[in-house]
Write a structure and sequence with these properties.
- The complex is a heterodimer of chains A (162) and B (667).
- With 162 residues, chain A is mainly α.
- Chain A folds into two domains: 27-93, Helicase, Ruva Protein, domain 3, CATH 1.10.8; 96-162.
- In chain A, 64% of the residues lie in helices and 0% in strands.
- Chain A has helices spanning 3-17, 30-34, 56-70, 75-86, 101-157.
- Chain A is rod-shaped, with a radius of gyration of 34 Å.
- Chain B is an alpha+beta fold and 667 residues long.
- Chain B contains 20 helices and ten strands.
- Chain B has helices at 2-28, 32-61, 68-73, 80-85, 91-111, 121-141, 155-164, 177-192, 194-206, 212-243, 253-278, 282-305, 320-340, 357-389, 397-420, 428-451, 457-488, 492-502, 504-529, 632-649, and strands at residues 531-537, 542-545, 548-559, 563-574, 577-582, 585-589, 595-597, 599-602, 606-615, 621-629.
- In chain B, α5 (91-111) runs antiparallel to α6, α8 runs antiparallel to α10 (212-243) and α18 crosses α19 (504-529).
- The chains are: A mainly alpha (162), B alpha+beta (667).
Chain lengths: 162, 667
């Protein structure tokens, strides 16, 4: 692969593979963890966004996060405690394991696969472009002879060769 | 009254079916009289659906609570704008509004003066009429907006109306300017894609597969795309100012449903340039417009089927299976048609180099469609997981942000790269020369931001990429203006506007790119640098956040016929100086759950956002206070998007047809 192609491909691949997460602070806060969980009141919003005036679910879950932070538990441990209690659906995004990997990997795999298809297609078009450029060059050469032939035939059709 | 609306719908259905059949038989059998009859029938159907809409509007405005829909979505104390907006506030009303938009668009398509694509109109009109007939069937037999209220139909509502001698009223959350504009804007976008889709199918049916269908639908596609884009941004704004959770986009299934067709339509608008310029991607363009239309219908299916839970959905209805069937038939039928016409869609694509503007357009298409696919997968994955594993899961913002973030970043970067690479081929020397200064600008900005304290590396990357793209756009404008300045001796300002005016589609596109950059800046700033505090204050107490001091002055309540409102007042000081008051509220509506009315102090730098969370009997009041940096740029970006779209749409002056001479050969 030539450097310029490699350059573009590398830029795209590196961008596509970069994860986007706000840089985490040293210690997880209630707000950080609340963004990773779904409120169980039925609002279908992440815990930090549940805007019900009175929501016992939200208050209980937030209090539990605060307690567990006070106990010195890590973010992962706290989140796992909620999974143990409410099941996987409490997570705002599926964990990156098992069957759930499909949803995490398939988009990038599809885009990379599409990239390969585009690369091969464009390569074929470039090849076709070069071939037709060669043919048109050859046709230009033929044109000279065709005109000469026409002229000679024209001359011949009169009173014979002059 | 209800009977008039219902009978008008019934007659409109008959007229639509007759028009669809007559158009096809008329044009295929070369019976101009039949085509004329179909035209009249289409216009009649449009008039009849309009009568039906007018009937429902009349019922809404005159408080005809005998009609279930009116009783469900209006009350006597509602103002006229909200009474009108009730037309699209409920499931059946919005479905009628959808059918009405189709009928209006169909009439406009038919009556438009056109030099190109005339032969496609009967086929396209037939397709639009079939779509209209589908919606009319639903309105007549599945979701009737003129259903009369009785105890058997809806006992709860019936008893409510009997007891209160009034309707339930609009959900207070919908009583917002955003909700008056957002749904119709979005619906015009969704419905608008019916026209380009219909012309695509018309081209396939009639085997007129040259570029005429593309020329015919370009403006329609931009209109639909623009309305959908602006509708999405208005929806985000409404969520921000009304829902009271501090955010604007929750990656909710219904938000996603509005975003997916917009992304695919964006890809389509780019790739049709390739077909027009180089005769490439004919099959791909057909597939893209088919996908755009089916995704628009998919959005409606999601909203009305109740298959996925969402804050936006109408109550679960029987419409789901009908939409699913329509979706299946449309998608399958269209793709089969593309397959059968594949020979006519073959393009003799040739390129001179792997690195060219064409390649960047292809990559742009890949990323936009890839983003739409990601959103689709994320939206339906809870269902897939339940089917495959029997386990319910949630796919929420963390997934969409992590996966889509890099894809969107790459797409934004490509808009800059694309402008720097010429059509057909790019030499290494050209590339180095073109990329040098944009890269230097991006790097310098990155360093400056780092020195200023920006430490989130991803924010640094995004902002540098944005500056790279902005530089390429502004430099392109400068070069064009300079050329005009030299050639026509115009001053730079006049030269610039002359440049934009002379090539509106292209410069409208650039303005849209700037809009996307502004939105990206707003999204990144508010995502990475938002901060929040929850506090409980007694009157007279204060709290501080990022240089602001908020003093809680107290709470008052007021009552109207349908609601009690509690209003808290906070004085806001910044660096010791009083800068104003914020008054967050809570409503308690007699028929709906409590609603939060947030208070926002918005500047170009940041929003101070206050939510009234709750209070107790001794006066302790809980507030959630957020600082959302640069979020206003998202809304400004929306306005710029609208401006760019309008510039791209602005009609060219109609030129008189060229007179055929022996010299020109009519070309």
């Amino acid at each position: 692969m030539r450097p310029k192609k490699l350059f573009i491909v590398l830029i795209l691949i590196s961008l596509v593979l970069l994860p986007v997460t706000p840089a985490s602070a040293d210690e997880a806060t209630v707000s950080d963890i609340a963004k990773e969980l779904i409120c169980q009141c039925g609002c279908d919003m992440v815990l930090s966004a549940c805007n019900h005036l009175v929501c016992d679910w939200r208050d209980t879950m937030l209090a539990s996060i605060e307690d567990q932070i006070a106990q010195g538990k890590s973010k992962e441990q706290i989140i796992q405690s909620f999974v143990d209690l409410y099941g996987e659906s409490v997570l705002a995004s599926p964990p990156k394991k098992g069957f759930n990997l499909v949803v995490w990997i398939l988009p990038f795999a599809a885009i990379l696969g599409g990239g390969v298809v585009i690369y091969l297609t464009v390569k074929a078009w470039v090849r076709r472009g070069r071939q037709s450029a060669t043919i048109s060059k050859a046709e230009k050469g033929d044109e000279k002879y065709r005109k000469r032939l026409e002229k000679e035939l024209e001359d011949f059709s009169g009173d014979g060769f002059r | 009254m209800a009977d008039i609306g219902y009978i008008a719908l019934l007659l409109a259905l008959v007229a639509s079916i007759y028009a669809a059949i007559s158009f096809i038989f008329g044009v295929r059998g070369r019976h101009p009289a039949l085509v004329d009859s179909a035209r009249n029938s289409l216009l009649a159907a449009s008039g009849l659906v309009s009568i039906s809409v007018a009937t429902l509007l009349y019922a809404l405005i005159t408080h005809d609570f005998q009609i279930e829909y009116v009783a469900n979505y209006t009350s006597s104390d509602m103002s006229l704008p909200y009474l009108i907006s009730a037309l699209w506030a409920g499931n059946t009303g919005s479905l009628l509004f959808w059918a009405w938009l189709i009928s209006i668009f169909a009439a406009v398509v038919l009556l438009q003066k056109r030099d190109i694509g005339k032969e496609l109109v009967p086929y396209a009109s037939a397709i639009i009429m079939v779509t209209q007939a589908f919606f009319l069937i639903l309105l007549l037999w599945v979701a009737n907006p003129f259903q009369e209220l009785s105890y058997t139909v809806n006992p709860q509502l019936f008893n409510y109306v009997q007891a209160n001698v009034d309707g339930v009223g609009l959900n207070p959350m919908l009583e917002n300017l955003g909700m008056i504009i957002h749904p119709p804007t979005l619906l015009i976008g969704y419905v608008g894609f019916t026209v380009p889709f219909a012309f695509a199918i018309a081209a396939l049916l009639s085997r007129r597969l040259s570029d005429e269908w593309l020329i015919t639908i370009r403006r329609w596609t931009i209109i639909a795309w623009l309305f959908l884009g602006v509708g999405n941004i208005l929806g985000a704004w409404w969520a921000y100012v009304e829902l009271g959770w501090g955010g604007y986009w929750a990656w909710d299934p219904v938000e996603n449903a509005g975003f997916m067709p917009w992304l695919v339509a964006t890809a389509f608008l780019h790739s049709i340039m390739m077909q027009r310029r180089r005769g490439m991607l004919k099959v791909w363009n057909m597939v893209l417009i088919i996908l755009t239309f089916t995704l628009a219908i998919f959005g409606t299916f999601l909203t009305r089927s109740g298959i996925l839970s969402s804050v936006h959905t109408f109550s679960e209805s029987a419409l789901g299976p009908f939409f699913l069937a329509f979706l299946g038939v449309t998608l399958f039928g269209s793709l089969v048609l593309v397959f059968y016409r594949r020979n006519g869609l073959k393009s003799e694509a040739e390129m001179e180099s792997l690195v060219s503007r064409e390649s960047t357009f292809l990559l742009n298409n890949l990323l936009l469609v890839g983003a739409a696919f990601t959103i689709f997968l994320g939206t339906v994955f809870p269902l897939i997981s339940e089917w495959v594993r029997g386990v319910k899961i949630s796919v929420g913002p963390p997934f969409f942000n992590q996966v889509n973030g890099p894809i969107f970043l790459a797409a934004i970067l490509l808009t800059g790269i694309c402008a720097l690479i010429g059509w057909r081929r790019a030499s290494t020397k050209n590339l180095a020369r073109n990329f040098l200064w944009p890269l230097v600008v991006a790097l310098v900005l990155g360093i400056v931001l780092f020195i200023l304290g920006v430490r989130q590396w991803y924010a640094l990357v995004v902002l540098s990429v944005c500056s790279f793209v902005l530089y390429t756009i502004f430099y392109e404008w400068f070069r064009g203006a300079r050329a005009r300045h030299r050639m026509k001796a115009e001053n730079y300002l006049k030269a610039f506007f002359g440049l934009v005016w002379a090539n509106r589609p292209r410069y409208g596109g650039y303005i849209v790119h700037i809009a996307i950059i502004l939105i990206a800046i707003g999204v990144v700033g508010s995502y990475f640098y938002s901060m929040e505090k929850e506090v409980i204050l007694m009157p007279g107490e204060e709290m501080t956040i990022e240089g602001y001091t908020l003093t809680y002055e107290g709470m008052v309540s007021s009552q109207t016929e349908s609601r009690i409102t509690y209003t808290a007042t906070l004085s806001v000081h910044n660096k010791g100086k009083l800068i104003g008051q914020l008054v967050p509220e809570k409503y308690f509506h007699r028929a709906y759950p409590a609603v939060t009315e947030v208070a926002i102090r918005s500047t170009l730098v940041e929003d101070l956002y206050v939510i009234l969370v709750g209070w107790d009997e001794v006066g302790a009041t809980a507030f959630k206070v957020l600082i959302n940096p640069v979020i206003k740029w998202i809304w400004i970006g929306g306005a710029v998007l609208l401006l760019g779209g309008l510039v791209a749409l602005w009609p060219e002056r109609r030129r008189p047809p060229a007179i055929e001479t022996p010299e020109t050969g009519g070309k």
